[in-house]
Design brief:
Helices cover about 50% and strands about 15% of the residues. With about 450 residues, the protein is α/β, with parallel strands linked by helices. Bound molecules: NADPH dihydro-nicotinamide-adenine-dinucleotide phosphate. NADPH dihydro-nicotinamide-adenine-dinucleotide phosphate binds next to helix 10.
């Protein structure tokens, strides 16, 4: 793809040369820069101060060795990452991912997206991301603990409540955050709100667990209503069965939708009677089993091996909540021909660029992840506020704030799209609204 604006094109060309082996990162940057053309055209300061050239370069990247001992007494080594991408509007903030596919490209794409997502929440949080190529699947609690302790033995020197506050992501839930927090506290000899997603007994926020999934549905509901639709009576397909997917199921069911399919990386289940999120929660969060185990408890469901086929299940609303690039052009075409009315991203960058073009081209509603899944980090921001103030809000208070934030993000995206001649294009609106806030802060702070 080529840009009409020569400055944007030159930044992209330079980035491609320097990061030729980082496809996910380049994909994320290209998508944002394309939306920014009217913004950069309208204000010469962005080029004069080279704001785009600076915003695509991380402020700092830390890569480190993570040695740990497995249950058989064997020494294992993984590679850890923390990308501190942009701190113009607040301390770096973004999750830690533990998955065998983690590499620098994946962490940089996630960190880059996080800059704009965090800006959209209206809370003072910069963008960052981290993780390791460690696979928690099949590991004992002891192995996961030893890995987390080793990971934090290096990470602690780069983070802090006013510097960088990591959270969970794929493979990092309440168990891992607990082990990471314990190690940070031991090394620093201080109790600090340095991680979010903490347990309720030690500084966590009510509704943080539910926040990304609930927030996704609040956002989708706002977009649906703006287009004269609602969740009421709609058949919903959700990919994944992790943190985001489980609570997206709970909220969209409450809003009147019926979730008829969910997946994990092995396959998917279909039940036209509706999938019970509490059964999934038990299987995935408590027993740590495969989604196929759903059939043992709910015999009306059927299981299909292979996760990609989930998008061929006819539905009205699609919520991809598993991982990046899980919904390609073929999947998008299947959704379109089955009469789907909207795709709302719960995972980060789950739709390929070709899929997004097909979805938007066919006139379906499309919600980009950096806006529609911002509820998790927004509630992490609320957790940080509660930690700083030594207070805790009720579930209802946090949930009400989350709903208000998600509706506000939808409106900000819709308004920005309209202002820059892209009415109804929520993807462009999200990029523009997030960028304007961060770029303004960077302009005020000089060349740094
Ligand atoms: P979890 O680790 O809790 O769950 C991930 C789920 O996705 C698992 O069920 C996993 O299955 C499944 N999965 C992975 N790859 C595929 C695939 N190719 N097809 C189908 N299912 C797959 O992660 P989260 O729910 O926390 O994160 C999911 C996505 O949401 C990620 O993109 C993450 O970055 C994003 N996100 C998460 C936030 C949060 O607050 N947790 C906040 C914002 C974004 P299996 O068990 O087989 O691996």
């Amino acid at each position: 793809m080529s840009m009409k604006n020569p400055y944007l094109q030159s930044v992209l060309d330079g980035l491609k040369t320097r990061n030729a082996h980082e496809p996910e990162f380049l994909q994320a940057v290209e998508e944002v820069l394309e939306s920014l053309e009217p913004v950069v055209d309208s204000d010469p300061r962005y080029e004069r101060q080279n704001i785009i050239g600076r915003i695509v370069e991380p402020e700092r990247v830390v890569i480190f060795r993570v040695p740990w001992v497995d249950d058989a007494g064997k020494v294992q080594v993984n590679r850890g990452y923390r990308v501190q991408f942009n701190s113009a509007i607040g301390p770096y903030k973004g999750g830690l991912r533990l998955h065998p596919t983690v590499n620098l490209s994946v962490i940089k794409f996630l960190g880059f997206e996080q800059i704009f997502k965090n800006a959209l929440t209206t809370l003072p949080m910069g963008g960052g991301k981290g993780g390791a190529d460690f696979d928690p699947k099949g590991k004992s609690d002891g192995e996961v603990m030893r890995f987390c302790q080793s990971f934090m033995s290096e990470l602690y020197r780069h983070i802090g409540p006013d510097t960088d506050v990591p959270a969970g992501d794929i493979g990092v839930g309440a168990r891992e955050i607990g082990f990471l927090f314990g190690q940070y506290k031991k090394i620093r000899n201080e109790w600090a709100g340095v991680l979010t997603g903490k347990g309720l007994s030690y500084g966590g926020s009510l509704a943080r667990t539910e926040a990304t999934g609930f927030g996704l549905c609040y956002f989708a509901d706002a977009q649906l209503r703006d287009n004269g639709q609602s969740f009421q009576g709609k058949r919903v397909v959700i990919s994944g069965s992790g943190n985001v997917a489980i609570y997206a199921n709970q909220k969209c069911t409450q809003l009147g939708g019926k979730v008829i399919a969910m997946s994990d990386s092995n396959g998917y289940i279909v039940d036209e009677n509706g999938i019970d999120y509490q059964v999934i929660q038990q299987i995935k969060e408590v027993r740590r089993e495969r989604i196929k185990a759903y059939l043992d408890q709910v015999p009306t469901a059927r299981y299909v091996e292979g996760c990609a086929g989930i998008w061929s299940v006819p539905c009205d609303i699609a919520l991809p909540c598993a991982t990046q690039n899980e919904l390609d052009e073929t999947a998008a075409k299947a959704l379109i021909s089955n009469g789907c009315i909207g795709v709302f991203e719960g995972a980060n960058m789950p739709c390929t660029p070709e899929a997004v073009a097909a979805i938007k081209g066919a006139g379906l509603m499309f919600a980009p992840a950096k806006a529609s899944n911002a509820g998790g980090v927004a509630t992490s921001g609320l957790e940080m506020s509660q930690n700083s103030g030594r207070i805790s809000w009720s579930f209802e208070e946090v949930d009400a704030k989350l709903k208000g934030i998600m509706e506000g993000i939808y409106q900000a995206c819709a308004d920005a799209a309209q202002q820059y001649g892209k009415k109804g294009d929520i993807q462009a609106g999200a990029n523009i609204a997030g960028f304007l806030k961060v770029a303004d802060a960077m302009l005020w702070q000089g060349v740094c």
